[in-house]
């Protein structure tokens, strides 16, 4: 359990950075929101995959 | 979950993966199987009813159907696959998206309250379908060797670094993709439902079974948190269906792409 908590730090930071960049981009260019949104969701999914693998392993091991 | 030195408490069993192994209803038919078929029926009936009497001026139901269809068609398929040949995949993507959405929301419907994809087998099935689809269209377009080259040799890389890049690209594009696709959906549903279980059961235990009046407010707080997690789940369930469909479209688009 503690191990999974530690493993969730990395993806948490990553997701935070992704959305920070997305907010920045929309603030600078509001008309680019639709294109940025797809990329942001995609990046969020990819970063989240690491946390997901962690939780799967926490229940397997 | 017992407190040291307090043996008069009733034992609290924290929920775990075992709570997801429901007994069979009749003859090996389990609850997730029934829900899965039910979700397929719901999606089919909705779109059939919406498109049965297609009029130029849509009614309310037809308008809802068109809205749902357009969301997948323009928001997911066209942006990811490209406007040249995305129409072939729109039926599959639409069916996939709404099947996953309905199946996820079974986790919040009273009396059903079981997200189908918290059993990993269902997610594996859909990921296998997606894997066959994107590899299939890629091989059909580029030929077997050309497709392998497309998926494992990135453009603009030369020299000895290819020895490192090619196996990595091959593993990540062919082998890891379906696994992460399935596990992402499964683990989100599983973890979310487990959180709901934990907060509701924990609150019930603290209020009714702990035998200590001081724990009652804490149990009420746990119930409030369960409601909050439920709202979070509404968001997560939609988002996971969206991500699954979006990634399927991206993989198909990548398999169809010309040499980059």
From TrEMBL, chain B:
Location(s) in or outside the cell: Cell membrane; Membrane
Alphabetical keyword list: ATP synthesis, Cell membrane, CF(0), Hydrogen ion transport, Ion transport, Membrane, Transmembrane, Transmembrane helix, Transport
UniProt protein name: ATP synthase subunit a
Gene: atpB
Principal location listed in the UniProt entry: membrane
Entry-linked Gene3D superfamilies: ATP synthase, F0 complex, subunit A
HAMAP family found in the cross-reference section: ATP_synth_a_bact
Taxonomic superkingdom: Bacteria
InterPro entries named in the record: ATP_synth_F0_asu, ATP_synth_F0_asu_AS, ATP_synth_F0_asu_bact/mt, F0_ATP_A_sf
Membrane-spanning segments: 33-50, 89-109, 121-140, 161-179, 185-208, 220-243
Function: Key component of the proton channel; it plays a direct role in the translocation of protons across the membrane.
A GO molecular-function descriptor: proton-transporting ATP synthase activity, rotational mechanism
GO annotation, cellular component aspect: plasma membrane; proton-transporting ATP synthase complex
Topological category with respect to the lipid bilayer: Multi-pass membrane protein
Family affiliation: Belongs to the ATPase A chain family.
């Amino acid at each position: 359990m503690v191990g999974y908590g530690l493993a969730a730090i990395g993806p948490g930071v990553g997701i935070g950075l992704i959305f920070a960049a997305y907010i920045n981009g929309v603030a600078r260019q509001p008309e680019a929101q639709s294109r940025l949104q797809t990329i942001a969701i995609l990046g969020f999914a990819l970063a989240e995959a690491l946390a997901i693998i962690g939780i799967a392993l926490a229940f397997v091991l | 979950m017992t407190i040291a030195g307090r043996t008069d408490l009733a034992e609290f069993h924290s929920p775990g993966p075992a709570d997801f192994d429901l007994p069979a209803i009749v003859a090996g038919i389990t609850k997730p199987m029934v829900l899965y078929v039910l979700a397929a029926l719901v999606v089919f009936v909705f779109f059939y009813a919406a498109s049965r009497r297609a009029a130029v001026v849509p009614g309310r139901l037809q308008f809802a159907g068109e809205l749902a269809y357009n969301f997948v068609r323009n928001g997911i398929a066209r942006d990811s696959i490209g406007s040249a040949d995305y129409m072939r995949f729109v039926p599959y993507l639409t069916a996939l998206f709404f099947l996953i959405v309905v199946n996820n929301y079974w986790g919040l419907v009273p009396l059903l309250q079981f997200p189908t994809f918290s059993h990993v087998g269902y997610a594996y099935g859909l990921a296998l379908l997606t894997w066959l689809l994107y590899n299939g269209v890629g091989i059909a377009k580029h030929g077997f060797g050309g497709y392998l080259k497309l998926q494992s040799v990135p453009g603009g890389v030369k020299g000895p670094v290819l020895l490192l890049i090619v196996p990595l690209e091959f593993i990540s594009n062919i082998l890891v993709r379906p696994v992460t696709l399935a596990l992402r959906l499964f683990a989100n549903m599983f973890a979310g439902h487990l959180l709901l279980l934990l907060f509701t059961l924990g609150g019930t235990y603290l209020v009714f079974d702990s035998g200590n009046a001081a724990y009652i407010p804490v149990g009420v707080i746990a119930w409030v948190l369960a409601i909050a997690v439920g709202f979070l789940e509404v968001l997560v369930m939609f988002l996971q269906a969206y991500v699954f469909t979006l990634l399927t479209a991206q993989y198909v688009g990548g398999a169809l792409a010309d040499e980059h």
